Amino acid sequence: MKKYNVAVVGATGLVGRTFLKVLAEYDFPINNLVLYASKRSAGKKVEFKGKEYTIVELTHDAFDDIDIALFSAGGSVSKEYCPIAEAKGAIVIDNSSAWRMDDNCALIVPEINIEDAYQKSNIIANPNCSTIQSVLPLKPLQDKFGLKRVVYTTYQSVSGSGQKGVNDLIRCKNGESPEFYPHDISKTCIPEIDEFLNNGYTKEEMKMVNETRKILHMDNLLVSATCIRVPVEACHGVMIQVELEKEFTLDEVKDALNNYPGIILYDDGKNHIYPNSIVAANQDNVYVGRIRRDLSCDNGILLYSVADNIRKGAASNAVQIAMALDIDKCKK
Ligand SMILES: NC(=O)c1ccc[n+]([C@@H]2O[C@H](COP(=O)([O-])OP(=O)(O)OC[C@H]3O[C@@H](n4cnc5c(N)ncnc54)[C@H](OP(=O)(O)O)[C@@H]3O)[C@@H](O)[C@H]2O)c1
Fold it and tell me: Domain 4-126+314-330 sits in which CATH superfamily?
């Protein structure tokens, strides 16, 4: 089997550390592994598959002889360094929002649209964590019944803000003042994720709107979102209200979801079976449940999805893209 030279950028972060875990679990065929972070972490030692690696400071001299570069070091690092990695011949899979809406870059959930990767530049974007776990259940419904309108409400864990978010929850639980969130996250949900825009939505909410349209190839889909940070350490929940084009039975909807890769139907409310962080943590599947008719419109359905935001929402989705790609087909 062919082996690849792999770089991980942001290797010391929440997503970066999970990249290493997932690469090992999936037994990704690695020849040489290079781990980058900022000057702060340069020299630190990290273990991968029983071997010790030293963190290297990311500079413009990076990415020599790299086949695949996995980025998770924030938008400004990705803006600056993804083109450098690409110019040196690497296929880049980026977890930040820097390239997602760039027309030249594919935005991929591998179960849905891996083919998009071959029509674009070699910078491939990984969608927002909440988008991934929302479009996965929407796709089989789109295929079978057509989508008319979607409304999202998210319940996003603090790990979605990286290590700073997790630290703030711990700090606040210990009675200290918040240093990262605008309010004490141990005492309240916070309906503010990323910056507020002039239309009253936050950037996170508009990411969900725009990325959903791009991944599902539906530029005119009616979609809106409200994103809420909750005092939970791991996994995001998304309530999805969807109006379908065609009539359906609940059994048909459940069948469509059940037969789609990456989805686990977890829906038996009377027995307390519904998606939750405890069952979804450390998993790569998206759990979907609470499936019922929307009483407020025709052909409406309500679903609740929960997934591990660091795994399927970030690291695992990116590694799954790398596994699903025909790498030689990408290289131009
Ligand atoms: N958390 C999630 O649920 C999630 C989901 C999807 C996407 N993402 C995206 O993934 C990225 C990282 O998120 P995270 O949650 O892992 O954050 P994090 O825990 O704060 O980690 C940030 C990483 O970026 C590195 N870094 C920061 N500035 C750098 C620089 N100038 N040069 C090189 N490396 C630098 C840090 O290295 P040092 O150790 O040197 O500081 C660290 O390894 C973000 O773009 C985020 O939007 C996160």
Answer: NAD(P)-binding Rossmann-like Domain (3.40.50.720)
- Asked whether the predicted pLDDT for residue 198 surpasses 90, the reply is yes
What spacing in Å lies between the alpha carbon of 214 and ligand 1's midpoint?
24
Are 307 and 157 in contact, with CB atoms under 8 Å apart?
Answer: no
| Average pLDDT rounded to a whole number, residues 148-170 | 97
Quick: pLDDT tens for 6-46. 999 999 999 999 999 999 999 999 999 999 999 999 999 99
74 Cβ below 6 A of ligand 1: yes
Q: Does the annotation count 189 as an active-site position? A: no
- Out of 14, 203, 227, give the residue to mutate to test ligand 1, the one with the largest number of ligand atoms within 8 Å of its CB: 14
Reported as a pLDDT band with limits 50, 70 and 90, residue 327 is confident
Q: Token pair of 176, please?
A: 């200290």
- Residue 306 CA to residue 279 CA, distance in Å, equals 9
